[in-house]
Amino acid sequence: MQDSLHLLRTRRFLPIFTTQFLGAFNDNLFRTAMVLLVIYGIYGDAEQEAAFSAIAGGLFILPFFLLSALSGQLADAMDKARIVRIVKSAEIGIMIFGAAGLLLQNTALMLIALTAMGVHSTFFGPIKYAILPQHLTKDEVLGGTGLVEAGTYIAILGGTILGGLLVLQRPDGSYHAEWAAVGVLVVALIGRIAGGFVPPAPPADDAEIPGYPHRGMDWHIVRASITLVSATLHVRRLFLAILSISFFWAMGAVLAAQFPPLVKNVLFADQSVATLFLAVFSVGVAIGSVAINRMLKGNVSARFAPSSALLMGIFVLLLYWLTKDWTPPGTELVDVREFLRHPLGWAVVLDLLGVAIAGGMFVVPLYAFLTTTVPKSETARTVAANNIVNSGAMVLATLILTGLVLVGVSVAETLFLVAVASVIAAWLGWKLHLACN
Q1: For residue 400, with 0-12 CB atoms within 10 Å meaning exposed, 13-18 middle and 19 or more buried, which class applies?
Q2: Fewer CB within 10 Å: C terminus or N terminus of the chain?
């Protein structure tokens, strides 16, 4: 950890780390406050609530499909620090709409702001990784990537918890999110200030890989996306890394979708236990993200990817075994204290921590690999191509999960399927490791 934490004392890294942290924090602060306000304070119908959640999730992820190619081209063609400032300035305007939606309890305004935040994240996404090779030395990129990933998960946790705390109930029983409205604006302003300290990162003049799209803008969204993803097929190592990351996020999408029903309907626990699971998972990914840098001694390598994927699968399999025959302590949903008193309560928590640590160890070197296996002139477009494939994999995994649930597959059984799928992730990691040697 000490090998990479020194980066937090440098201007080369701290401003971009802080900007990314605050962006992820604000995303989750706003989304959590919005969802809770809508569910508890606006709608009173289960079908409306489910429809709103589905629409909100789709609107946030849609820009990643449509605009990732443009964001990658833009980041490779312009000064990345300038784009950071533009994007963070836009976030302030977006959050004015978001705050107004929260104050007025207007779902249309909130959904407009959520969609705009998806666009914001789409254009910022390639930069947070692609800027690292320009500001850090080669042996610092892995550590910096790990810190960015760790900070993102801690920000997700913090934003989610605060978003829940800031949706308050009035004496008359109605709900409001006035403090959340203030919070999203304040965080956006601080994020813009932090973004102003990011050092310049002008377009690199490195020679481009043959077959890769030339620097510049192709404004045809579909053609640009297809061209960008197709270009990665010509570089075997790059394509294997993207496949491995996408498979990881597909498994992650299934786990994330199943956590709420797992907590409520399998473990018979309330939302405080769901929050505990989120906290444990976030901390675990952060630990794995930083620890893998220590294990690899700063060298970007996939040699631990197969074992990390298999270890993650073993922990998921153990989670399946722990939960498949779970015996509830009573008829009421239990809180954290009662859950941890269950004979297997601590075992579930520690097992979930193991899943997260192994996941962090698997994915962080692969992200670092994306930004170091291509010239600096192509890093943002490479990350953008990865984002397109990742988004598709997550949507496909969610659709498959929905189909499995409709045919009667239980929550515990989906955990078993994820454990089996980790073998494929390990195989992809092994193929990548061989391709790098």
Answers
A1: middle
A2: C
Q: Which amino acid is at 419?
A: A
CA 84 – CA 407 distance, rounded (Å)? 46
Concatenated DSSP letters for 105-141? Answer: T-HHHHHHHHHHHHHHHHHHHHHHHHTHHHHS-GGGH
Give the whole-angstrom CA distance, residue 38 versus residue 22: 24
Q: Rounded to whole angstroms, what are the CA distances from 103 to 100, 168, 188?
A: 5, 12, 17
SS3 131: coil
- Tens of pLDDT, residue by residue over 354-369, are 999 999 899 888 888 8
Torsion 425-427-430-432 (CA) sign: negative
d(CA 237, CA 242): 9
What phi and psi, each to the nearest 5 degrees, are found at residue 270?
-90, -170
Structure tokens belonging to residue 252 = 């992650």
Q: Is the CB of residue 383 less than 8 Å from the CB of residue 130?
A: yes
Half-sphere exposure at residue 382, Cβ-oriented, CA atoms within 13 angstroms: 32
Beta bridge partners of 169: 175
pTM over 0.85: no
Dihedral Cα 187, 188, 190, 193, nearest 10 deg: 170
Residues contacting 379, CB < 8 A, separation 6+: 76, 126, 129, 130, 133, 370, 371
CA distances from 212 to 35, 64, 153, 231, 242 (A): 41, 21, 32, 5, 16
Residue labelled with tokens 């550590």: 143
What is the rounded distance in angstroms from the CA atom of residue 291 to the CA atom of residue 311?
A: 15
Query: Distance between the two ends of the chain, CA-based, in angstroms?
Result: 27
- Answer left, alpha or beta for residue 79, where phi above 0 means left and psi between -120 and 50 means alpha: beta
Q: Which two tokens stand for residue 373?
A: 């296996």
Greatest CA span in the chain, whole angstroms?
A: 67
Is residue 175 classed as helix, strand or coil in its secondary structure? Answer: strand
Tens digits of per-residue pLDDT, 180-225? 999 999 999 999 999 999 999 888 776 666 666 666 667 777 777 7
Q: How far is CA 61 from CA 22, 113, 155, 280, 387, in A?
A: 19, 13, 19, 25, 10
Rounded (10°) angle between helices 345-372 and 411-435 = 30
Helix H or strand E encompassing 169:
strand 168-169
